[in-house]
Amino acid sequence: MRRLRFSGPTWGDPEGANRPKGGAAGRLPPSIGPLERRKRRLAYTFIFPALLVITALYLVPTLVTFVVSFEPAKMDPNIVKVFDPANLRQLSLDNYLRSFQDPVWRKAVGNTIWYVIVVVVLSISFSMVTALVLNQSFKGRGFLRALILIPWAVPPIVNGTTWGLVYHADIGTMNGLLRSLGIIHQDLLWLGHPRLALLAVITATVWRLIPLVTLLILAGLQTIPQEIYESAKVDGANAVQRFWHITVPNVRMVLLTTATLLTVFVTKAFDEIWALTEGGPSYGTTVMNLWTYRQAFDFLRFGYGAALAYILMFLTGIVVVANFIIRRRVEG
Amino acid sequence: MKGKTIDHLVADLYAGRISRRTFFKYALATGLSASSIAAILTSCRPSPTAAPTVAPTQPPAPTATPEIKLPDTLNVLLFSHDADIQQAKGPAFEAKYKIKPTFETVVADDHRDKIISAHRAGASSWDTLPLWATVVQEMAERGWLVDLTDYVEQTLLKKADDLVSGKALFQAAAFKGRIYAVPDKVGGPILMWNTELLQKRGLDPEKPKEWHKTKYSINEFVEWAKECTFEEGGVQYWGFADQWGEQVAGTFHQLIQMYGGDSFDMTKNEPYGEPIMNSEQGVAALQWMVDLLHTHKCIDPASLTYDWVFDFTPGYLGGRVAFIITWPFVTHVAQDPEQSAIVDKNAFAPNFAAETSATVEGTEYQAISSYAPHGPDAAWLWLEHMSSYDMMKLQGLQSGWAPIYKSLLNDPEITKAMFEGPVIAQSLEYPHQGYFTPDSTQWDEILRGEIHAALRQEKKPKEALDAAVEQIKAMRASSQ
């Protein structure tokens, strides 16, 4: 069956009259008038306070952290002195090179990749099902849509703590439930074994992400006109065929964007893991962001922690660029 | 300050050109006797009610003692868990020194991040800070704490005979021989047991009180724990439960000291110590833990996931666990009918013994930030005040936090409310090293990982401890 993609009119511009046409006719005029200049000045004036705040609170620390990432271990502990010429003379690539020899960091990279893949796949899969259900017409749909938002409204650290009680080996509800259903006869140590703990952490994260992903996919599903489904039905397509040949192609850009967003979010995961396991047992749930934090704030190796933060940023950047390239190809 | 005579220093002090602390430092350097310094400093106190810390030998004439400038306020950061009692010391401080303390609290989990981040940025909103021994070491190494040695020697150490553990009370607060913090409470984990459960299994509930004095009572403990591990009416009872998650190294430190060994030789490679936990005693300690879990099967296996006291106490307080080793304040929780099913059925004593009984240092401290916004002088007055005998008595009477003076821990008036006081004092007479070094968090992580590998039977105890020693040495080499 041919894949059907919806390419209807753009909202607010039904005929596409204002779309750039390309070529000379589509370009902006080479010079701008005084009114436009005033408008631009006003725009810059409005932007300036926000720019100032972002520079002070984001760009400056980012720059300082970058310099700190080259600090040797025995540097002056006062960050204010990081730009002292004497300190600057000691900067080196040692922290970046050390990451290659750090077995826990290597394990954290592996854990992160595994964690990201499983969380993204599970979140999107479960959310797709939920979104498809919520896209149907039935009584109480509005209430259910509101209800499903609750896990997303819970702060990640609270979510982690709550799941900690669920997994508690002695008084946890998970063991209680499984025991009462006769599935287990001895309590499981959910957070006591590295692999089981990672699974527990993944479950807690997926639980929190499902509402957001559901909403994103639901928004995509609602742009697909019902007429396409109806004509496919007339053509004899069954539900599975309609899903693979109509639904998926029409929401694939939403899925791609969601997958990228999730990858970035989950690569930076911290709160749930911190609340549940703090990276243990035996580094089984230590992900890159957690190890970065521990180096800087637990072990007070600020230079090495900063270097790991930059490596993490670089790797996350690769994901974003890859997404950009894939989008271009898919759209092309 | 170079070339100044004692007369110049005294003149500067009276004129307010130098602080009391600076005066103290240079006066000692120039050879002025400690008692004379104390006399001069006492004369500079802002309030006539300020009690001298040592008897002045030559009290200066009151008219010739202009007061040094002290701030009106002081910012005191406190742990949330003992904030009530520390704040209760505030009104007396304000009345005595005319300095109003402003209290801010921080939960234990957040406190290290909060303090470290601020000091890393070269600032502190607080004059005094609540600290654990590990953090004292880390901060002192980085120059973030005020050296209190001179103050402490002239005040608290004068009463060392009455301090719990004597001069050793300051051992964990010292870095490279200098003291950086003042203890505000003492303690270490002690043994607690459910007397009803023991009676039910035909065991004498009074006997564990003598275990700390009996060599190798640790073996009898295991037998009793096995006896108390059973299932009845669908309920699993455990002989023992402990926090072997994040805090497992603490349990190991207790055990290795019980077997007569040490985790670190603190006399070598000061202030870091030399890791020696892979000794015969260390292996015996870890083997005991492994056996308890896998051979005797008398410890709640979930202990591996219990990170803090309230993870494993629900089972004990619910009457399903016979023995625990934990912080003394739990004795009070066990007497609270809202939280406990074992009211009047909880007994406690110092830990059982192998070669000896042992525990780990659990003292908490207060210190002065190097960036104290109101300067160190007023901050020292607070530390001196909060650790004074009267305030410690108040602490003993009004809270479950143990005072730092032996006489108070055994004071009948205090033990009425703080019934565990004598046991705490007794417990700290046995070895109680916490092996606090500036890199404690790093080696603790390594040791924990290897102990867990042994507890999961992935490694033999000797292999695990050898690996821990090797990794700790490698970590230290890479940090240089």
Pick out its properties.
heterodimer; A: 332 residues; mainly alpha; MetI-like fold; 15 helices; disordered N terminus; B: 480 residues; alpha+beta; D-Maltodextrin-Binding Protein, domain 2
Topology, pairings included?
The complex is a heterodimer of chains A (332) and B (480).
Chain A lengths: L22 H4 L7 H35 L16 H4 L5 H8 L1 H32 L6 H7 L2 H4 L2 H12 L5 H8 L13 H28 L4 H9 L4 H29 L3 H6 L11 H11 L3 H30 L1
Helix pairs in contact in A: 4-15, 5-10, 5-12, 8-10, 10-12, 12-15, 14-15
Chain B lengths: L5 H9 L5 H10 L4 H10 L29 E7 L3 H6 L1 H8 L2 E7 L1 H13 L7 E5 H9 L7 H6 L19 E2 L2 E2 L2 E4 L4 E5 H6 L16 H11 L2 E3 L2 E7 L6 H11 L5 E2 L8 E2 L4 H16 L13 H9 L3 E6 L3 H4 L12 E4 L14 E5 L7 H11 L2 H10 L7 H4 L2 H6 L3 H7 L12 H16 L5 H19 L1
Parallel strand pairs in B: 1-2, 9-12
Antiparallel strand pairs in B: 3-14, 4-5, 6-14, 7-12, 7-13, 8-9, 10-11
Helix pairs in contact in B: 1-2, 11-12, 20-21
Order of helices and strands of chain A, N to C? HHHHHHHHHHHHHHH
Mean pLDDT over the residues of chain B: 86
How many DSSP helices of chain B? 21
Backbone structural class of chain A:
mainly alpha
Q: Which architecture name of chain A does CATH use?
A: Orthogonal Bundle
Helix percent of chain B reads: 40-55%
Classification by helices and strands of chain B: alpha+beta
Please characterize this protein's 3D structure:
- The complex is a heterodimer of chains A (332) and B (480).
- Chain A is mainly α and 332 residues long.
- Chain A contains 15 helices and no strands.
- In chain A, α4 (94-101) crosses α15, α5 packs parallel to α10 (194-221) and α8 crosses α10.
- Chain A is globular, with a radius of gyration of 25 Å.
- Chain B has three domains: 6-64, no CATH class; 73-186 and 362-427, D-Maltodextrin-Binding Protein, domain 2, CATH 3.40.190.10; 190-360 and 439-479, Periplasmic binding protein-like II (D-Maltodextrin-Binding Protein, domain 2, 3-Layer(aba) Sandwich).
- Chain B contains 21 helices and 14 strands.
- Chain B has helices spanning 6-14, 20-29, 34-43, 83-88, 90-97, 108-120, 133-141, 149-154, 195-200, 217-227, 248-258, 280-295, 309-317, 330-333, 376-386, 389-398, 406-409, 412-417, 421-427, 440-455, 461-479; strands at residues 73-79, 100-106, 128-132, 174-175, 178-179, 182-185, 190-194, 230-232, 235-241, 264-265, 274-275, 321-326, 346-349, 364-368.
- A five-stranded mixed sheet of chain B has the order 8-9-12-7-13. In chain B, strands 3-14-6 form a three-stranded antiparallel sheet. A two-stranded parallel sheet of chain B has the order 1-2.
- In chain B, α1 runs antiparallel to α2 and α11 packs across α12.
- Chain A binds chain B through residues 73-74, 77-81, 98, 168-171, 187, 189-193, 278, 280-283, 297-302, and chain B through 112-113, 116-117, 119-122, 138, 142-144, 245-246, 300-302, 304-307, 311-312, 314-315, 439, 441-442, 445, 448-449, 452-453, 456, 478-480.
